Amino acid sequence: MTFSVATLQARVEAIFRRAGLNQVQAAALSRVIVAGERDACTSHGIYRIEGVLRTVKAGKVKADALPVLDRGEGAILRVDAGGGFSNPAFELGLPVLAERARELGLAALAVNDCTHFAALWPEVEAITEQGLAALVMCPSYATVAPAGGTRPLLGTNPLAFGWPRPGRDPYVFDFATSVAARGEIELHRRAGKPLPEGWAIDAEGEPTTDPVAALGGAMLTFGGHKGSAISTMVELLAGVMIGDLTSPEALEALGTTTLAPRHGELILALSPEMFAAGRPGDPFARAEVLLQAITGQGARLPSARRYAARAKSVAEGIALMAAEVELLDRLQEQGLDGVA
């Protein structure tokens, strides 16, 4: 079946409302989930609904939370998510973050006490729509071994960056610092497909291509020690520095990797005009010279496939498999009773 973006968003929001989420939580979550499905990022699309509902049913997230913004003074803002999901907390802080970044040149938003399950690129894009560059990161729970290690210690620890391109889709990348997102391991398990070599180790610390063994062992960082160092940086900046949980602490608090983790998130917004003030050239025009030189060599910019999928979905609708439609129907009918 094919759904328009608006129709699918209404379906997903209705599922969350049926499960007891308030309007603030349900609306923000439905927007980010449908954005993933719209952009063919299926590991962060409607696949995530069940995980959200399991976390709500387990009492590990507050379905009725209302985030609270502390505007503070200067460049640092803070939103207390109140034990709810990170997405409505980000949406609450975004306007003030953008205003402060345009005023000061840069600003930081620390989101505390939130449950996180979503991709970061929707947040990065929301900042680039304000004409600002963005850097977003968060820990997860300990499922990744450090380079040379044998046991899970780090999170998948995603890192996302965005650069505004007036009149064009922004330059955006969003990737886990693990070789792959944990959702990709789960999708391989569901499909009965082996993992590529170098993705994971088993519980004994030995390399494995079995997704079940990988889920019981640990994923690996991308680029060996380089990815491990970046992942550790995320733990320090988006965990320790903002006074929230690191990935080992998040796993200890949650007690399982089957639910969405609770920790914090760090969002940075930067004004290219203010940083370039007094220097020759327009920063946006100079950026275009670089980016077009990349594509001029036949290389693809990150997110290009996602933008192409988005254009197709907006024009033709979002196509779902029969099993996915049945899932939506069941969850809308049964609410929390529809998940284990």
TrEMBL record:
<dbReference type="InterPro" id="IPR043143">
    <property type="entry name" value="Mal/L-sulf/L-lact_DH-like_NADP"/>
</dbReference>
<dbReference type="InterPro" id="IPR003767">
    <property type="entry name" value="Malate/L-lactate_DH-like"/>
</dbReference>
<keyword id="KW-0560">Oxidoreductase</keyword>
<dbReference type="InterPro" id="IPR043144">
    <property type="entry name" value="Mal/L-sulf/L-lact_DH-like_ah"/>
</dbReference>
<dbReference type="InterPro" id="IPR036111">
    <property type="entry name" value="Mal/L-sulfo/L-lacto_DH-like_sf"/>
</dbReference>
<dbReference type="Pfam" id="PF02615">
    <property type="entry name" value="Ldh_2"/>
</dbReference>
<comment type="similarity">
    <text>Belongs to the LDH2/MDH2 oxidoreductase family.</text>
</comment>
<protein>
    <submittedName>
        <fullName>Ldh family oxidoreductase</fullName>
    </submittedName>
</protein>
